[in-house]
Amino acid sequence: xxxxxxxxxxxxxxxxxxxxxxxxxxxxxxxxxxxxxxxxxxxxxxxxxxxxxxxxxxxxxxxxxxxxxxxxxxxxxxxxxxxxxxxxxxxxxxxxxxxxxxxxxxxxxxxxxxxxxxxxxxxxxxxxxxxxxxxxxxxxxxxxxxxxxxxxxxxxxxxxxxxxxxxxxxxxxxxxxxxxxxxxxxxxxxxxxxxxxxxxxxxxxxxxxxxxxxxxxxxxxxxxxxxxxxxxxxxxxxxxxxxxxxxxxxxxxxxxxxxxxxxxxxxxxxxxxxxxxxxxxxxxxxxxxxxxxxxxxxxxxxxxxxxxxxxxxxxxxxxxxxxxxxxxxxxxxxxxxxxxxxxxxxxxxxxxxxxxxxxxxxxxxxxxxxxxxxxxxxxxxxxxxxxxxxxxxxxxxxxxxxxxxxxxxxxxxxxxxxxxxxxxxxxxxxxxxxxxxxxxxxxxxxxxxxxxxxxxxxxxxxxxxxxxxxxxxxxxxxxxxxxxxxxxxxxxxxxxxxxxxxxxxxxxxxxxxxxxxxxxxxxxxxxxxxxxxxxxxxxxxxxxxxxxxxxxxxxxxxxxxxxxxxxxxxxxxxxxxxxxxxxxxxxxxxxxxxxxxxxxxxxxxxxxxxxxxxxxxxxxxxxxxxxxxxxxxxxxxxxxxxxxxxxxxxxxxxxxxxxxxxxxxxxxxxxxxxxxxxxxxxxxxxxxxxxxxxxxxxxxxxxxxxxxxxxxxxxxxxxxxxxxxxxxxxxxxxxxxxxxxxxxxxxxxxxxxxxxxxxxxxxxxxxxxxxxxxxxxxxxxxxxxxxxxxxxxxxxxxxxxxxxxxxxxxxxxxxxxxxxxxxxxxxxxxxxxxxxxxxxxxxxxxxxxxxxxxxxxxxxxxxxxxxxxxxxxxxxxxxxxxxxxxxxxxxxxxxxxxx
Length: 899
What we know:
Elements: H1 2-17, H2 29-48, H3 57-89, H4 94-124, H5 137-144, H6 163-174, E1 182-187, H7 194-202, H8 205-210, E2 213-220, H9 225-235, H10 249-260, E3 265-272, H11 277-281, E4 293-298, E5 306-309, H12 315-328, H13 336-348, H14 353-365, H15 370-377, H16 392-402, H17 406-415, E6 424-425, H18 426-436, H19 447-460, E7 465-469, E8 477-481, H20 484-497, E9 501-503, E10 519-522, H21 531-538, E11 545-548, E12 568-576, E13 591-596, E14 612-616, E15 643-646, E16 669-673, H22 680-683, E17 691-697, H23 705-709, H24 719-722, E18 725-734, E19 750-757, E20 761-762, H25 766-770, E21 777-781, E22 785-786, E23 789-791, E24 806-810, E25 816-818, E26 829-833, E27 851-855, H26 859-871, H27 874-877, E28 881-884
Parallel strand pairs: 1-4, 1-5, 2-3, 3-4, 9-10, 10-11, 11-12, 12-13, 13-14, 14-15, 15-16, 16-17, 17-18, 18-19, 19-21, 20-22, 21-24, 23-25, 24-26, 26-27, 27-28
Antiparallel strand pairs: 6-8, 7-8
């Protein structure tokens, strides 16, 4: 993508301009500033143009122009990065450096002139129709609004799998519980069936009788208000004399308002892309107390309205729809053998009705034999989706993609580097996007916050699916994934844009033209170990990323790294005999994730640009003693480090202690370290630390080691005394002993999240945690606290867990839990799992909405809650809900170490 190329080069230049005067990297800053200015103009052009939606010559010329920009910008970035790498690796004197800089300056000038030529072309041709957003606006609305309509094989009486949604929407439309005009948003991804559900309700005879006026208009992404008003007036049978072509929007809206005034109406606004549409329409839709209804269908979620989400079909519903499409319309019966294969195919459609319909069309054309069907079932995806397919499915998906702004397109394409079905961690994705340098910070946000917000926007556009939720807060998706249809489209788009290349099968993974790729994604790590693959990889000299997401390898693989310009190396799924020493020569590296059993070399300090460092040890390596294994002291020289995950290692004491340069001011998160990293000397050198994850691993026969290791929580000059505010603390004791830890844990006064496992604290010591005023999330796992009884006792009961919103109790030996109704005043989510000895759950006060999940507890607990639900009608009134067996999508897991 030209946009990603421009942003990446801008980020590179900005980093160069921020280098200190004494830096060993010598570059002509004046030229760099001039190039940056030119890039800003190119970026504004790329942000303004709309994607091609036709085969017109102007669209193709813009595409060609974008490719030219991308190619030149890539070459310029390569020139700069190679020059920096040469200076970094060079051990020669200043004379050689001066000569190198002179040649570089000449080449830089040539490229700047080429970039300038692009801006001159744009400035002299601004009157040309390069921005195609308005080019087809007058005639595209009708075609765009029909792109995602679903035809269930012509059978409109039976909608497979959406009966619950139909009944819910119909009940809302006909109910008398809402006095004034109310609005319902029906939302979901492209092709999921929003319109057909609404149309079924709209066409219901009882609905037609219930309302005085029923109006249905389809808007689309480029709707025009005047045209919409005329459509409404046409359905209202307005007098033709009032509908002159020169009528203003104001006069038309007043006419609509006058006709509807005093009448009960139902208005359906289908395929809405403007999230402020309700605010616009309120001026000509009367808001009276007569139970009028407005239904909005949209792929966008950011409406301030009551909403109903259309779900994907389950496997049974998917097969029923596919079977009906293939056999009901063509006749014949489905044999048991075909049914078995057909269910596999339907499952691979991942519940999207429009995808199932396209597969049904495909199967209707095939011979109904096991061989033909098995050929489709064996494919990774049942369909291949390209932008030029011109099928209802590809058109619907492409519209969702093309309507994204450029910066979201970049993020969306990048998400398809992960294998099919991969559950993408929000934390991992944001760190990768920042390290890649393909995003710019938005107003009042840093790069990570910008990347985080981009994911929120993609979810809001219904192009990314939520999987697991965080413990608290709105829009807090912890993991997400791409539907196979969107991923398929993105992979093909990325391939055509040379955005990334997937390495999967040998030798198909290294085609001609691979030398221009910027990112290599290995979905089969073994291929990277082949000698021939090493030869091919040498041709991809400009690669900025190597992402290894194949299955984890039991045995080490020799990884070849001929990529001098690498920014991202994510190879946790590969096992190395020892730490790959060649990575310390990669000056541009910002994200490093590896699995290695060897020591970390002191030369890691050469990675002066590293921001994310993730080092795992292979799980088969067993510690022979409880002695800590330290990272090299040179780790304190990585001043740009923001996130550190080092499973099985500890941070060394900075030495010498009076060296003020040994401070990691940018380090925000540490995970996987041992308790020896929590000394005051260490923590005071990390002043902005916000998240800390401790892992205490002891030998089975050492019962006191874990207790001694937990002493860092015991107050004094330890953890609690260093930080006034803290975001998250997690402590996991591996192989916890049965010895109870009598240490009274102390935490920073303003900590917001605590997660404990295996600590063995007595319940009496819970009072210290209960008094933390800003604690919002508390997770207790595997004997985090031990003992038969937890009773809340205090003279001032209102000070206990005053702000707690989320509580998890899992694998605890507790029997009795006593809580008064006025305690836990703000809790809205309670999860209790595998507390087999617990006899009863205290019923919290019902002045709030509480979601409770109970799984794997004693039958007494289950029976208690069922009885309470039957007897206490206030549970429903106050919104308290109980879920058994953990059958939902919500998740309570902590942030796992990056992998």
